[in-house]
Amino acid sequence: MKKILLLVFIFSIYFVSLVLFGSVVKHVSHKGPLSNNLIAKVIYNMSSIPSNLKTNIFGGNLSIERKTQLPLASKRLGLKVNINQNKKEYILVSKYFLDEKVFKLQLIDILNNSLIHTWPHKQFSKNLTGEGGPGRYTFEHSMLLENGDALVTTGGGPIIRIDPCGKKIWENDLFSHHSIEIDNLKNIWTPIYLSEKKEIHGQILQYHDGIAYIDIKNGKTIYKKSLVEILIENNLFDLIGNSYMGRDPLHLNDVEPVLTDGPFWKKDDLFLSLRNISLIILYRPSTNKIIWHKFGPWRHQHDVDILSDSKIGIFNNNTQLDLKNVNQNSEIITYDFRNKKIDKIFDTAFKKHKIRTYYEGLFEIIDDNSVYIEEQENGRLIKANNKGEIIWEYVWDAQVKWSRFYNLLNFKKIGNIDKSINIIKNKICQ
What SS3 class is residue 60? Predict the structure, then answer.
């Protein structure tokens, strides 16, 4: 009888402990008021041991990178040219290699269909990881510089400047993500995650978004600002509070600096893309003023570009509410400040070739007749024309991450691309 009572007692203690443990984990995962308690943190971290072991042994969730998940995986990999234009064009692209379980950054010559350079990632990233575990450094929106260096980052990691041999020139200490862009002084604007905790409407944010301005010569932070504070200080907090609430209410994914004065903006203004509330903002850091903002008709957009002195373009992911599917196809939507007119450009190509990606993705208008598109979800990079024809496409059997299109003209804001490529080709690495 005593043994039975002892077993009942032990089972009762075990059951109560299990319930208390689960309650604490649930409380912390929902960011309850006691989430920052030391004991609560320890218990929550203990509950993460199995998933952390899986991530560190096998890597993160590879579902989107698996060949079977990619509708275009059956197509011939690499470059396919449909219309030969005999132009010097290049792509700087981060690609996931399924066999090696690693992302690599490569510079590819479109005209000659050749690989110019692969950055030796192990040289600088062996102690760095992305959110998915070891080897998952993603090289998001890497940027080539005239002297052959590259700016690289990963989701929620530091921006690093490296030379062609992978030697680290400098490393910034902020948690950058998504886009890297340069202004007139060739310094860097980027979205960041701020380490300072932010609570709004009783919710502690999982991602406290901000913007940062970084010196390209030494990597030092010149300026940073909380995006939540920008909205509050401009009396626009209700853009968050009355439309969406959760631990990631904004999801800033692009900071686009204005390079020249225009009738509707000034040099050094910033266009900001906030995915989770489908909002574009025109912000003036010099006065801390939001000059203009607009919801939709884009949905969960990425990548806002300035197309003229009065027009912007937005990569509209056009996602459904479940965030896993696209309504027909993605789009490039333009907004004209002169007449408030909404339009779609290169729409024939998007519809005809079913160009769609429910997350990420980007575009660059090359000229009036052609556009560069990254269809991130399908591992496809495309140059298309306004007739709906694909001029060339580069297909990969796994994920690509925020690539760059370069030609002689658009590289001019950085420098001379022939000079950059010659330096890279002639660099001798130890």
Answer: coil
Which tokens belong to 71? 């509708």
Dihedral of the alpha carbons of 321, 326, 328, 331, in degrees to the nearest 10 = 110
Cα(132)–Cα(115) distance, rounded to whole angstroms?
A: 27
Does residue 397 contact residue 76 with C-beta atoms inside 8 Å? Answer: no
Q: Would you give per-residue pLDDT tens digits along the chain (430 residues)?
A: 666 776 766 776 766 667 676 666 566 555 565 666 667 666 666 665 554 444 444 444 433 444 444 555 456 789 999 999 999 999 999 998 888 888 899 999 999 999 999 998 766 555 554 444 545 788 989 999 999 999 999 888 899 999 999 999 999 999 998 899 999 999 999 999 988 887 777 677 777 899 999 999 999 999 999 998 999 999 988 877 666 556 777 889 999 999 999 999 999 999 999 998 899 999 999 999 999 999 989 999 999 999 999 999 999 998 887 767 888 999 999 999 999 999 999 999 999 999 999 888 999 999 999 999 999 888 899 999 999 999 999 999 888 889 999 999 999 999 999 999 999 999 988 7
132 close to 120: Cβ distance less than 8 angstroms: no
CB 156 within 8 Å of CB 184 = no
Contacts within 8 Å (CB) and 24+ apart, 103-108 = 103/130, 103/135, 103/136, 103/137, 103/138, 103/139, 103/399, 103/401, 104/139, 105/139, 105/142, 105/150, 105/152, 107/144, 107/421, 107/424, 108/79, 108/394
Whether the CA torsion 203, 207, 208, 210 is positive or negative: it is: negative
DSSP code per residue over 150-168: EEE--TTB--EEE-TT--E
User: Both tokens of residue 260?
Assistant: 């020249």
DSSP type of residue 76 = P
Q: Maximum Cα–Cα distance for the chain, whole Å?
A: 90
Contact 207, 257 (CB under 8 A): no
How far the first Cα of the chain sits from its last, in Å, is 76
Cα–Cα distances (Å) from 277 to 75, 297, 339, in that order, read: 35, 11, 24
Nearest Cα to Cα of residue 169 among 216, 105, 136, 221 = 216
What lies within 8 Å, CB to CB, of 225 at 6+ separation is 210, 211, 285, 288
Instruction: Please list, in sequence order, all residues whose beta carbon lies within 8 angstroms of the beta carbon of residue 368, skipping any fewer than 6 positions away.
Output: 386
Bridge partners (DSSP) of residue 426 are none
Go through the domains of the chain in sequence order and give each one's CATH number.
2-49 (no CATH), 80-426 (2.120.10.30)
Q: Rounded CA gap, 409 and 405, in Å?
A: 11
